[in-house]
Known about the structure:
Elements: E1 5-9, H1 15-22, H2 25-30, E2 52-59, E3 68-76, E4 84-91, H3 100-115, E5 120-125, H4 130-138, E6 142-153, E7 156-166, H5 175-192, E8 222-224, H6 231-239, H7 241-246, H8 257-266, E9 271-277, E10 280-289, E11 297-304, H9 313-332, E12 336-342, H10 346-354, E13 358-369, E14 372-382
Parallel strand pairs: 4-5, 11-12
Antiparallel strand pairs: 1-2, 2-3, 3-4, 5-7, 6-7, 8-9, 9-10, 10-11, 12-14, 13-14
Helix pairs in contact: 5-10, 6-8, 9-10
The structure holds coenzyme A.
Residues 26-27, 30-31, 89-91, 96-102, 123, 125, 129-132, 134-135, 138 line the site of coenzyme A.
Amino acid sequence: MPPRVNVRFVRKEDIEAIHYILTRPEVMWGTLQFPSRRLPSLNRMVESSEDGFSLVAELAEGPEKGRVVGNAGMQRGVGRKRHVAGLGISVDPAYHGQGIGTALMEACLDTARRWWSPLRMELDVYPDNERAVALYRKFGFEVEGRKRGVAIRQGKYVDTLVMSRIELAGSGPSESQQAEVEATASEASEANGQDGESNVPGPAKEAREMGPGAGRERLEGEVRPPVPAGAPNIRKLYENPGVLRQSSFLPWNVPTVEKIAEDLEKAIDRHTFVWTSKESVYGEVTLIPGRFRMARMATVSLLCIPPDTCYIARTVARDLLRAVVDLADNWLGFHRLEMETYTDELWLFDILERMGFRQEARLRKASLRDGVFEDRLVWARISESW
Length: 386
Ligand SMILES: CC(C)(COP(=O)(O)OP(=O)(O)OC[C@H]1O[C@@H](n2cnc3c(N)ncnc32)[C@H](O)[C@@H]1OP(=O)(O)O)[C@@H](O)C(=O)NCCC(=O)NCCS
């Protein structure tokens, strides 16, 4: 007989039991937990927040009545990802396969539905974690793609599946829509593949462009790390309508000059380059290293004025990506670089492909842009030396 459990919101006194569960070898195998995880780092689970909640499952009967045997939590996104909720779940290995994960999932989805109403619920799972994949499928989650070599597990780099559940019936992209994007991407690739450029990373000294604006005077520019005094020009880049559209900023909440300057001075774990000419900034790329078991990967954020208003857009994007790939491959040693784009940023696709990025997943309805829930594409580059 499977044990009966009560599922309730977490309390301070549950933290020790949750720490015990999270540091079991079977749980570390299925999650991103690690053996040196310190108990106080879990205290934030009990701090109340409108954007996250944690639940526990406790035994409802028997000699161990009240024992916490599982926990689960959800976190809501910010800004344009406010409609997205991420989910995590762990059960004491002594109780695996006895319906406790199911009880926690039911409670999580019910709480989220009643109090947040997320459009998209998402999670990452290792492909060989069959019990977890089965649990998520049972609750309507579908696989959207496979990220290569995201995290380390017992000394080996492993892939993850991206799974999501979309709340509006029939709102997911059809396979034909997906095929359409892929076809257009390879067409863009062919159309742009005639300039014979190599993808050997290295900073560019000169801007050239074959598209609209060809024949104009060449614009000299360089890729370099920004200085705090350049913050006003970076702010101008962020305010550009084309940049705003492809960024994660909300129009009324674009970082101020002071905030940009402060980040440039203090956020030393981030690596930023700008493409600049005569003090104007045409593009920016930032590399954000992953943490703990994802420490060998980094997320790339690229912001460029798009080609419809900037004739050197392709050069800018290519130079910035080269600089960041060089940094990752030759100086910082990241195995995996990951980047997201909207599906309509077609002009970037062949540049990404020539830098060795591959499309790995299509995240359905992952971002709200100008009143429309848009899909996002996940691109990743695995280093050759891996
Ligand atoms: C994944 C996990 C949360 C599932 O919780 P659980 O209590 O073991 O799951 P349940 O007993 O509710 O089973 C859920 C479903 O998994 C499937 N399942 C159960 N045992 C299975 C097994 N041995 N192999 C494959 N699928 C299995 C069944 O479809 C089951 O649904 P059903 O009982 O309606 O048929 C739990 O095993 C766990 O904590 N694992 C380690 C941490 C982890 O991997 N977390 C998930 C990270 S993404």
